[in-house]
Amino acid sequence: MANIKPFKGIRYNPEKIDNFDAVISQPYDRVRYGLQDQYYDLSDHNIVRIIKGKEFEGDNEENNVYTRARDFLNQWLEEGILVREEEPALYVYHQIFPLPNGSEVTRKALITAFELAEFDEGIVLPHERTHAGPKIDRLNLTRATETYFGNIFMLYPDPENKVDALLAQAINREPDIRAKELHEKDVLHKVWVVTDKDVLNAVAAEMAPKRNLIIADGHHRYETALAYREEMREKNPAAPAEAGFNYRMAALVSMSDPGLTILPTHRLIFGYKKKTSAEVVKAAEKYFTVEKVADRTALEGKMAQSVGEVGRIGLVTTEGCHFLTLSDASIMAELTPQRAQAWHELDASILHKLLLEHVMEISAEKIDNKEGIQYLREPDIGYDRVSAQVNDHLGEKDTAFLFILNATRIEQVTDCTDAGEKMPQKSTDFYPKVITGFAMLEVG
Asked: Is 443 helix (H, G, I), strand (E, B) or coil?
């Protein structure tokens, strides 16, 4: 059962915070490329000081990013910057944003306390692999603060959007929070605090029988929560089932939500020296029809026309722009017979297994460790890197390659999870990100 419950969330006090734009942030794993400093400059109370605080040279066991996070949390509660909800609540969370074609859509989420379940129970399913480092970091933060600040972004089956219909009656008013976040400035965030017990009970009852919820974003955070739950159960064997550590804050979105949007993630390969551009293109011709096109505009036009088709990949090298069409899909089954058909048909799988590993002879270990590979939401950096090599400005002629992909479709995600398959790294980029700072869940 997908058990959810309202909770007395910690949130920013609107009487003390008059600009929510200044205190919210991207999820911790997106706080990079100078964003940390920018969030620090926005406000002395920005949530980044807790979820992704600065490290200092003199840090030790008594004074470090985790102890400072705990101290910020306690201090802000004492000062009334943060307050605890007086009644258990669910938080309705809408994100309104423009699509590339200019149309505007709304993605509707429900922030709730979600009862943790092991993956083999079939209630929650992962779709991507995880790595140890981020889990250790998040576990240390949870131990220090006994609070969850970011959400697990989860998708739930609801073909008729019944949950959204139940919540609609509770938000027929101005939102309690309205904000725009620094990094994704085109996205308007609206949050309603819902405490009506009849609505809360009806939503919980509608969610209860659901299974096969998919983690869209937050795999590391979810696995961290499972580890923390086991730690706390060992320390508190008599704790009731309702104990906070048995739950994790989650933002739930219907798989049928019209605003559910997945963006493509492109790959820049750099520092590669095994083969020249011409040799890579020649080797790819064994498995793909390779069509050389005039320029970036022509390539991206071909990609747009091939949305929904299997094995269409753009390749940019010093030799120019190429549109690749997989000649025979059976090659994927030959290379990875242990994998399901749904996995074989992912463009990310075809790129990683056939092009990167087989054609370019880059080891799976290097790809897994992100050695010589950069994942790009916007491909401009990749085009610039390859273009610079034409005149050998970097002294690395022929060592960078840009691969352009179309976005993974939601039905491909569900097909892979139904087959028990975990997709390659960065197969999905659900847009926009679920922002941190609207509510916090105490679990100690």
From this structure: coil
Contact criterion met (CB below 8 Å) for 369 and 259 = no
Average pLDDT, the chain: 95
Say if CB 112 and CB 206 are below 8 A apart. no
Starting at the edge strand found earlier in the chain, the sheet holding 312-317 runs 288-293, 320-326, 312-317, 401-404, 266-269, 373-376
C-beta separation of 290 from 276 below 8 A = no
* Count of structural domains, the chain: 2
Q: What pLDDT, on the 0 to 100 scale, is given for residue 99?
A: 87
168 Cβ neighbours under 8 A, 6+ residues apart: none
**Same domain? 275 vs 202:** no
Selection from 25, 14, 46 nearest residue 174 by Cα: 14
Same-domain pairing of 278 and 240: no
Q: In this structure, are 326 and 437 located in the same domain?
A: no
Round to whole Å and give the CA distance between 313 and 306: 9
- Same-domain check for residues 252 and 275: no
- What pLDDT is attached to residue 102? 84
For the chain, which residues score pLDDT lower than 50?
Answer: none
CB 326 within 8 A of CB 288: yes
Of 352, 316, 314, 313, nearest to 332 by C-alpha is 352
Pairing of strands 247-254, 104-115: antiparallel
- 322 in the same domain as 256: no
196 & 326 share domain: no
Helix (H, G, I), strand (E, B) or coil at 415: helix
At 364 the pLDDT is: 93
- Read off the amino acid at residue 58: G
- Peptide bond connecting 432 to the previous residue in cis, omega within 30 degrees of 0: yes
Q: Which two tokens stand for residue 409?
A: 């479709």
102 and 164 inside one domain = yes
Q: What is the 3-state secondary structure (H, E, C) of 21-90?
A: HHCCECCHHHCCCCHHHHHHHHCCCCCHHHHCCCCCCCCCCCCCHHHHHHHHHHHHHHHCCEEECCCCEE
What pairs with residue 402 in β-bridges? 268, 316
Residues 200 and 271 in one domain: no
Domain that holds residue 145: 4-261+431-442
Distance between CA atoms of 109 and 45, rounded to whole angstroms?
A: 25
What is this structure's pTM?
0.91
Minimal CA–CA distance to 210: which of 128, 122, 151, 127? 122
